Fold this sequence. Notes:
The complex is a heterodimer.
Chain A: H1 2-26, H2 35-52, H3 59-82
Chain B: H1 7-38, H2 41-48, H3 60-73, E1 80-84, E2 94-98, E3 104-108, E4 111-115, H4 122-133, H5 139-162, H6 166-169, H7 179-193, H8 195-222, H9 227-235, H10 253-266, E5 273-280, E6 288-294, E7 302-308, E8 314-318, H11 325-338, H12 344-371, H13 382-419, H14 423-444, H15 447-473, H16 477-483, H17 486-515
Antiparallel strand pairs in B: 1-2, 1-5, 2-3, 3-4, 5-6, 6-7, 7-8
Amino acid sequence: MWGRATAGIVPGFFLAAALVGLIGWALPGPWQSTLVGGLVAFFPVWVGLACLAFAFRDGARAWLAYAGLAAAGLLALWWLRHLQWVQ
Amino acid sequence: MVIRFSSGTLRTFTTLHTWVGLCAGFALFVAFYAGAITIFHHDLMVWQSPHAAEQPVGTLDDAQRLLDGTLARHPEARAWVGMMFPGEETAQPVVYWPDAAGTWHYATPDDPEGAEHPPAAALSELVNALHYSLGIPVAGTYLMGIVSLLYGVALVSGLVIHLPKLAEDLFALRPGRNFKRFWQDAHNVIGVLSLPLHVMFAVTGALLCLVMVVALALDPLVYGGKLAETMPAALDTAPQVQPAGRPQAPGSVAMWHARAQEAAKAQGLEAFEPVYLKLTHVGDANAIVEITGEAPRRLGALGAVALNAATGELVASQLPGRRDANHATLSIAYLLHFGEYGNAWVQWLYFLLGLGGAFLFYSGNLLWIESRRKRRQATQGKAQVWMAKATVGVCIGVCVAISAAFVAAQVFEARAAAWDVPVAAGVTWTCFTTWALCLLWAALRAPARAARELLWAAAIVTALVPLAHGAATGEWLWKSAAVGHTALFAIDAGALAMAIAFAWLARTTARRARTGEPNSVWAEPHSP
Lengths: 87, 528
């Protein structure tokens, strides 16, 4: 229980950040105009991921999956911004 | 539609629902009960202040005199000053500004020197503080933000547990000997039918409490550290303009009022009623006045116009129907949370749904106790007994405490000068002392007795609310009804209705203790 709960809280936070960031930057128009929408969406996304973490068989898998996806997502976002493919 | 989850998943989510409910339930009860009352915060100010209902609505000249007087008396207000226009929300204008130490001051035509509390707002501020922070300064807001997140988890997990039987059980409310089934049905039906509202409160509640913390964390992760320069444009209407360093006399309140309405009309708004303004760097050539007003019959009725304060030239605007994505999202989040759309029916709907939400958390605690009841013995476990005591002390206690604060508001408004006690201090102390006494009472007595006694206390104190108002101001509820002070009548009559409801609950609790299932924390010793 605790393993999956903390997976939702800690790597879940970063995964939610990556999802909100990727969508906000990928949408047409400047990223600045998705700011408030992104901040509003962040909370249900984070809570949703925290609940979804309990669908994993154990805490280690949840941690691994969320941390991996979060790292991949944030790296992808950084790379897209670095190449200026999104703005 | 049948949705199946494995029994393991259902068990996990039941445990999750129980635990987040335990952690957040008490705070959510207080937030919903106080929040339901906070819906009427403007009316509470009129209710608290003696004879406010008869006060004539001030004019723009009154506002001008107050603003000029404040700027002359308090030079620190020249950097940033706000003003409520006289009108529907406050009959007289109110000017407010932060001093060098960041303390807010409020001045009115009756009190041009200014005080550290807005006039007649002690009660509504207290109830609002209970709503968003349990009355705990600073940390309370973050605590309630975390509670909102747990509330979101409780909603998802509760829905998952209930989903397999959602359709068939939705309108089932099965009274009878199986009380657990009855409470479970009531808990489920309220939870499911008001789910959209609860999802909205969980999201906007977390947003209002935690947005700055989360924004700080997201800044380096996804926004490349550019948030500080982007935020003002996303949240405010007026752009950040540096003072020009050239003095120029500001225009008049009447000119700003007229210019704002002109600007709104040019954008297709037939009516635009200014509610408040923000004025920065007054006296400078770059002084900006931002006027927020209401466009009736528009979704997200509040919009804002920013003008150059000296010339009245339009600088920027965010008006209903013409907002950018950020302002549109923000205004929708706000109006949904605060119920500031539609007419008085929406407010009453929010009030009832707020009380329904409070019931949801109360019944959650009852279900926790009930599902751990020892059926074959009178003595119940320690955890169940203390859970019952805590539920009674916190939940019924806060109802008593808020009603006591209402009575105190009338008493201290009338006697504060004679006793030399600030109204806000008197109201706040009354509320928290009453709540502490209720908690102590619940800790010392058996749960069934404490519940009955505190419900009677709630009934009596709540019945005193319209009496105190009538005795202190002469505005008895029949007089308010006769002269058409609907809001005052509604508060007094509402308190009376609540008092009757508390008395009914007290009687029901007493009957259950005497005649109900004897092996329970809610029973008093009796032969079955």
